[in-house]
Design a protein that fits this description.
It is a single chain. The chain is an alpha/beta fold. The chain contains 21 helices and 16 strands. The strands form 4 sheets. Strands 1, 2, 3, 4, 8, 9 and 10 form a 7-stranded mixed sheet that branches. It has a 4-stranded antiparallel sheet with strand order 14-15-13-16, with helices on one face. A hairpin with a 3-residue loop joins β6 and β7.
């Protein structure tokens, strides 16, 4: 189900209720860009440790925004049946008063989304507003100051027209008379009321539905009474509720403390922190600590399936939909006893239609893959492929090894541990390439040469010498074998004591010192012998 700004507040209470009652939540996001090409060299690479990767990703997250967020809320009906409520939320940064945001579009990402029929009109025209805690504090300060300023040119024109109309009317109106302003949309509903009340002390405003505002002429005493009533539509709490938008649901998700399930979910977590909680901190460990506080249980289905795929001899799957289809096929030995998954009556679109890279559909796939892999692992442990009755707590127990282990792409390590220190020891060795008979060779040429077999990140060390990085042991073995007798490219394991420039320099200095010491000793001995 698609949820836009016009219907979000109405659906919010039900969504909060579903989150509190569910077993776990699948989620996914779509962005206006992924990794920025600026500054040059700022893209993640296989040289990066997690903290280095984080700094690069942090810059990209600050540059791009979330255009769609999907939640699939799974609740167990009985021990072998789950109901999924799947929702697409189109999001757009809050623009209210002086609050504004800047973000970029990446051509590749837009082309990708367009290929999968992303509705940009819903994103740009009907997107649900959101803000993080830092932005909310600024908005609160603006509301407390009482000096309301409209920044948008379109809203300024609308407000000017309304002020002229109401000022002309109020000069001849008597107490009790009213006028209705029409075609007032979104945050204009608040902005127009705040500006009119600030400018005219003998009027009061009341919204009529979602597109009209009534302006009524009243006495100063009545004005004072109305300003202090709980039912004032422009009370600070009501304005903040509307301006927060989707952030209200984010707070409900954090409060529910349910397991959060994604697929390659690390960039999603960075955006969750930055857009709805607080701007990403500079310190990588602080980011990990914050995420662990917000979401104590994280499960990345990419990490789970990567670990078990070969064991069960499943065919290679290149994306989440292919993983789901394999697990739903007869290749899955536990298919007959897997939990049944049904779509809620108001979320039936995905019962008959595949919608890859639509956030809610991918969120549904994440949750379904989680249940099927957990059932597979539980049946393996119990040695009972016909097992049909299992609780979600049993599934969590069997997945304990993978909890808070989030997959990391293109770095020196394969996953981030949100429960403790990252394991930086189990990684493929570094290789060094020495080139002969290939004048003027560049890192790009070496990359293209190796790409025939597999992918390495290549870094030029000095003329005709390059460092090669991979995150796969099999690729390291393959390249060492293929280039063992190559006439121009000699590839070997990198050894710090043999290949490090600093170590070589140190050894050369030690050699020089030792040579001079030996020479001085010999000369000194010869002199004594002559005497």
């Amino acid at each position: 189900m698609d949820v836009s700004a016009a219907e979000f507040e109405e659906k919010l209470p039900r969504l909060r209720e579903l989150l509190l009652e569910c077993d776990f939540v699948g989620f996914d996001m779509e962005f206006t860009g992924l990794h920025s090409a600026f500054p040059p060299g700022g893209q993640p690479s296989l040289y990066d440790y997690p903290a280095e990767w984080y700094q690069k990703a942090r810059r990209s997250v600050q540059q791009f925004t979330v255009c769609q967020l999907g939640l699939s809320i799974f609740s167990s009906e009985n021990s072998n049946k789950y109901m999924a409520h799947s929702y697409n939320f189109f999001l757009f940064p809050a623009t209210f008063g002086q609050m504004d945001s800047e973000f970029s579009f990446q051509a590749f990402s837009i082309k990708f989304l367009t290929h999968y029929d992303f509705d940009f009109n819903k994103f740009l025209k009907d997107g649900i507003p959101y803000m993080n805690d830092a932005q909310e504090k600024k908005l609160q300060q603006s509301l407390l100051s009482g000096n309301w300023v409209v920044r948008s040119v379109l809203d300024k024109d609308k407000v000017k027209k309304v002020i002229d109309e109401v000022t002309c009317w109020v000069s001849s109106a008597v107490e009790g008379e009213s006028v209705v302003l029409r075609d007032v949309y979104g945050f204009q509903m608040f902005e127009i009321q705040l500006i009119l009340r600030q400018a005219l002390q003998d009027i009061w405003t009341v919204p009529l539905g979602s597109e009209e505002v009534m302006v009524k002429k009243i006495s100063p005493r009545d004005r004072w009474l109305l300003e202090n009533t709980f039912y004032d539509s422009c009370r600070r709490e009501q304005i903040l509720l509307s301006a927060r938008g989707f952030t209200n649901l984010f707070h409900a998700l954090v409060k529910a403390k349910k397991p959060l399930v994604g697929h390659n979910m690390l960039m999603d977590l960075l955006h969750l922190h930055d857009k709805f909680y607080n701007p990403l901190p500079e310190d990588y460990e602080e980011f990990k600590k914050n995420i662990r506080t917000l979401f104590p249980i994280l499960i990345d289905t990419k990490n789970v399936t990567k670990a078990i795929w070969k064991e069960f001899q499943f065919p290679q799957a290149s994306n989440l939909l292919e993983v789901y289809e394999v697990l739903c096929s007869d290749m899955n030995p536990t298919k007959p006893t897997c939990p049944e998954i049904f779509h809620a009556s108001d979320c039936l679109r995905y019962a008959t239609k595949k919608s890859p890279h639509e956030a809610a559909y991918d969120a549904f796939l994440c949750g379904s893959v989680l249940l099927k892999t957990a059932h597979l692992l539980l049946c393996r442990i119990s040695c009972d492929p016909a097992r049909t009755s299992s609780s979600f707590s049993q599934y969590l127990d069997v997945l304990a090894t993978y909890v808070n282990q989030v997959n990391l792409i293109r770095t020196r390590v394969q996953k981030i541990n949100f429960s403790g220190m990252d394991d930086c020891t189990n990684r493929p060795p570094l290789l060094i390439a020495n080139v002969r008979g290939w004048p003027g060779v560049t890192a790009e040429q070496i990359y293209q040469e190796l790409r025939i077999h597999c992918r390495f990140d290549v870094q030029q060390r000095r003329k005709n010498q390059f460092l090669l990085f991979s995150n796969k042991f099999k690729d390291v073995k393959l390249v060492l074998k293929e280039y063992k007798t190559h006439p121009n490219l000699q590839i070997s394991l990198y050894h710090h004591w043999r290949h490090s420039a600093q170590v070589n320099c140190f050894l050369q200095i030690c050699g020089i010192v030792a040579s001079w010491s030996l020479l001085a000793f010999l000369l000194g001995g010869s002199s004594r012998f002559a005497l």
